[in-house]
Amino acid sequence: MLDALITSKTRIKLLLKFFLNSNNRDYLRSLESEFGDSSNSIRQELNKLEAAGLLQSENNGNKKIFNANIKHPLFPEINSILMKFTGLDQLLLLVINRLGDLHEVYLIGDLGRGIDSELIDLVFVGNINREYLNKLIEKAEKHIHKKIRYVFYNVDEFYSKKDKIINDNDLLLWKYS
Questions:
Q1: pLDDT tens-digit profile of 26-56?
Q2: CB within 8 Å of 14: residues ≥ 6 apart
Q3: Within 10 Å of residue 101's Cβ, how many Cβ atoms?
């Protein structure tokens, strides 16, 4: 779907990497090994996105580290498009917003790192009815055509182990406010 609008597969990978999870930061050689694309094609796309103001960079030694410019006026729209592309918008609508005593939901795994995947890995924090959650997950999987894998913790258990469960690149997808 997105590849009909954006013909560069490298650009799509970069948008997913930096705009799905704005905490992601990376440099050229690391992206080259992650994407399996040539450094030249990645460099060209990084330069185009930076020239457009969508990415910003900083030098760290001999590495140029890139991240999304969250202050860019198109950031929310690009993020929204990517949420729809990955099915996360429907996951929020069909599952997360329907659960009762839920405190937080984290997107982990490949999608959390900004790598497109047919598998969505989630961490639920709260007091959740497992049977109801399974029914919601089953319906959501049919609707978004992706497999959803999850684990859940009660609040005390999660916060006592949070640093072992959640990594820097994991995305806080939803939080009770």
A1: 999 999 999 989 999 999 999 999 999 999 9
A2: 31, 42, 45, 46, 49, 55
A3: 11
Contact status, residue 87 vs residue 145, Cβ threshold 8 Å: yes
- Given the structure tokens 């959390």, which residue do they identify? 112
Q: Which two tokens stand for residue 166?
A: 């959640």
Tokens encoding 167:
């990594």
* Torsion sign, CA atoms 125, 127, 128, 130: positive
> Residue 90 is encoded by which pair of tokens?
């429907």
Dihedral class, residue 36 (left if φ above 0, else alpha if ψ from -120 to 50, else beta): left
Domain annotation for the chain: domains and CATH numbers: 2-68 (1.10.10.10), 87-175 (3.30.460)
pTM of the model: 0.83
Is 3 in contact with 13 (CB distance < 8 Å)? Answer: no
Residues 13, 40 contacting (CB under 8 angstroms): no
User: In 32-160, which ranges are E strands?
Assistant: 55-60, 63-68, 101-108, 119-127, 147-153
Q: Find, among 75, 108, 90, the residue nearest to 144 by Cα.
A: 90
Give residue-wise pLDDT tens across range 120-141: 999 999 998 889 999 999 999 9
How far, in Å, CA of 37 to CA of 30, rounded?
11
